[in-house]
Amino acid sequence: MNNLKRTLRVIVSRPVSLFGFAILVLFVLVAIFCYQLAPYDPNEINLAESLAKPGMKHILGTDENGRDILSRIIVGSRVTLEIAIVSVFVAGSIGSVLGLVSGYFGGKVDIIIMRITDALMCIPKIALAMTLTFALGRGTFSLMVAIGLSSVPGYIRLIRGQVMKTKNNDYVQAQTIIGTNKPKVLFSEILPNCISPLIVYATTNLGGSIITESSLSFIGCGVQPPNAAWGSMVEAGFSLIRVYPYLSVYPGIAILVVVLAFNMFGDGLRDALDPRISKSL
Amino acid sequence: MLRYILSKLGQSLVVILLVSIIIFSIIEILPGDISATIIPEDATEAEAEAIREELGLNDSAPERYFKWLFGALHGDMGISLKTREQVAEKVMHALGITLSFTIPALLIGTLIGILLGIAASLNRGRFVDNFVSFIANVGNAAPGFWIAIMLILLFSVKLKWLPVQGYTPFFANPAKAMRQMVLPVLVLMLPTIAAITRQTRSSMLETLNQEYVRTARSKGQKESVVIFKHVLKNALTPILTMLGLRLNICFAGAMISESIFGIPGMGTVMIQSILNQDANVMLGGAVTMSIAIVLITFIIDILYGVVDPRIRVAR
User: Fold this and answer.
1) How far B13 CA lies from chain A's nearest CA (Å)?
2) Of the candidates B15, B144, B205, which has its C-beta nearest A122's C-beta?
3) Is A263 on the interface with B (CB under 8 A)?
4) Cα separation of A61 and A244, whole Å?
5) b/e map of A135-171 (b: 16 or more CB within 10 Å)?
6) In chain B, positions 133-152, which contact chain A (CB-CB < 8 Å)?
7) What is the pLDDT of residues A46-92, one digit of tens each?
8) What is residue B164's DSSP assignment?
9) ipTM value > 0.90
10) Judged by CB atoms within 8 Å, which residues 6-35 of B form the interface with A?
């Protein structure tokens, strides 16, 4: 509890991370209540109001099918958040387990896991996600799996490094010497030391997953029409960029602001959870 | 040094082999029979069987993998299921195009990033530092495809300085090719600049506190010599290790921005192969791209060993 309080105090005391935190709270609320908040039905086609410029009736204008851009951005926030959370959860849990095993047991297991991790890291993230979407088919579910799996190597490296650092500390060695069994040492002594870096990494990874998701949706391998996703909205607007640039501009700003908020909040968290870093640089 | 190079080469080969197994396995879990995409609907069972036999789809997965690997080692990655083109040829051509703008973006971006990082670290806490950090943060958070569109909006639509999209081989028309190249290179350069700036800044700040820097200053060395000879030289090593990762990210960015700029590179080929459910092109494309990254990382590792003798002795 004290830790939580301290963390919150550090975050609130810095304008940048407070700003990021506030935007994230707003983003989550919008995503939860998106259908109540959206002024129009996001998928309703209304050709009479096609390509209305931003104004009183449609604050951010409408697209070529007369769908309200603001409503589509609001509703798109939900799928963005869902995919980000699920994929980070998938990546975080698989990566942490493999990282713990690899770092703690070492030996052949470690060599095998690390060689595969090295190999995965050589495949560009988007290419790996594309290959997975190819195999799983296009759609929201395969997006979650694809983005999640392509983020696993980062977690393995992070947790493994952390375990190796902790493993040689005296208090861990002491547990081993008095004969505590290995799983217990792993979970009660080593795991707690991995939590802080894991939370910080996962926070920035949420932002990264949003970028990967919107990129895949942008090239048509992500969320499928007519459902609104920020990436595919930017893409849909691109063909009309000469006359109606706002179609691409606004959804992109939504992505930028949310990812920026995750990064700012993540920086604040790092400083709050790891006092060594905030003091040195 | 020779031992260092050989051990790095061995590691690279293992990684390449693993990459091909991983990608092959992912594509293998594809639900349904890939021959469904290539066999015409009105084909008789005998015709369908002949096509399956021709593509080797009747063999078991490991058998097909080794056949593919054997072929790939001889420069044959099979044929496209859709267009019947040679995959190896198609993919190598696309790779050349993608490299022709990722490598310049990586090199120029790194150079600018180092300069900005130095400027930020020497003016720590002042306006220059805050401004550079702000730009780096925004550059990190904005998706590449959106930056690309914003640049098109500014330079092509509003200012009409540059063409919106298109690709011309350099030797066909150098002037036109250069003009079309500006925006794609810029798009890939910005995140590189952002990341390298951050890294340079923090590693410069760390090095500036070292004892040997104080010694250099106290013996009356000129400040410019201290910065460039003593600080920068040591601060640069972590940046060199980052280059492999940045290349990887540049490639990912290139795959997305190619579809915006209409460049027929790796990204375009891979997206097409998803839309066509063309497993051979997908496999060849993903593996070739990863091999390119492994090989370039290998070269960077060797350079790293040349620059920093501690590395080559340690391993």
Assistant:
1) 10
2) B15
3) yes
4) 10
5) bbebebebbbbbbbbbbbbbbbbbbbebbbebbeeee
6) 137-138, 140-146, 149-150, 152
7) 787 777 778 777 888 888 887 888 999 999 999 999 999 999 999 99
8) S
9) no
10) 11, 14-15, 18-19, 22-23, 26-31
Name the residue type at position A87: S
User: What is the number of alpha carbons within 13 Å of residue B89 lying toward its C-beta?
Assistant: 7
Intra-chain end-to-end CA distance of chain B, in Å? 10
- Count interface pairs A-B at CB distance under 8 A: 150
Please give the sequence-ordered ranges of beta strands (E in DSSP) within A166-240, or none if there are none: none
Structure tokens at B130: 């805050």
Domain range summary for chain A, segments of one domain joined by +: 2-36+66-278
Residue of A nearest to B279 (CA): A134
Interface list for A 126-145 with B (CB within 8 A): 126-128, 130-138
pLDDT value of residue A25: 94
Closest CA to A65 of A80, A53, A49: A49
Mark which residues 30-49 of B lie under 8 Å from A by CB.
30-31
In CATH, which of 3.40.1190.10, 1.10.3720.10, 3.40.50.150, 2.60.40.2550 is domain A2-36+66-278? 1.10.3720.10
What is the C-alpha end-to-end distance of chain A, expressed in Å? 27
Q: What gap in Å lies between CA A235 and CA B260, rounded to an integer? A: 9
Tens of pLDDT, residue by residue over A172-229, are: 888 888 888 888 888 888 888 888 889 989 998 999 999 999 999 998 888 887 888 8
